[in-house]
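B., you asked whether I could sanity-check this one before it goes into the benchmark set. Here's the sequence:
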Amino acid sequence: MFSLIIPVYNEEDMIDELAARSIKAVESFTSNYEILFINDGSTDSTLSKLIEVRKYHSRIKIVDLSKNFGHQAAFTAGLEMALGNFVAMMDGDLQDPPELLAEMHRMISQEGFDIVSGKRKGRKGKRLRLATNLFHIFFKHIAGIDEMENSGNFSMMNRASVNALVQMKESIRYLPGMRSFIGFKQGYIEYMRDDRMSGEPKMTLGKLIVLGADAIFSFSKFPIKVCLFLGTIGTIVFFIAGMYALVDKLFGWSVLGWSSTVLSIYFLGSIQLIFLGVVGEYVYRIYKESQNRPIYLVKKFYDAETE
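And here's what the prediction gave me:
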């Protein structure tokens, strides 16, 4: 059996096209499948449109979450509820072409890959292109995961890989990094990422920054290294400045002014604030994990038995 997971949030204008293209793409390589639409707390008519589409396609299932838990939580809900031996994840804005699912399935079923991820060789449209590319390059270098560059949620996994992924229960999640972390034999398929067909993009610059912070603090000790570097540089600079001040005092070459004192205080204070911010980020993540709250809550599940 094959499972396709598609989170949607306020995508009422795209549901018909999204369902039609997804069904056509999946049926090109299998007749035994399910498509799980994860309604992530939509406030428009997304849910009612999904229910209407489901009347004509019984293999569509709808997981209606109790509120908007976020993209990564919605994917997690799908992964934990999917029944397939092969499971694919795809965004609901059709920027990831569902027509590539057949090739992903072939690579797993015939070439022996456990995981196949879509790697973007380019992007249509200009919105956030530079910021997104910079994030992927930055993450690649600081996390030490070379194959992560330009690879997002669009992917397919076999059941062993899915079982390994759902064992990771952290509440602050970055699934592309987690997917790379679990290992297994991983392959990649390159594609040109399309622009949105309609509607407003859900990934804003602010959300991208938050996602980037989650990825960096979850998979890298780079922030701690930055603190250590700044602390070392600050120590060296002020050791030299102290030696200079001592020599200046002994020989009476000049009168020390207030500017050097004020600058020193500001410099040391800035370094300390950076340290506190980094430590605070890690403490916050420890606190979130210690709460042990559910990653998502399901309001209703529309499956084959649901009227």
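One thing to flag: The chain has ten helices and eight strands. Otherwise nothing jumped out at me.
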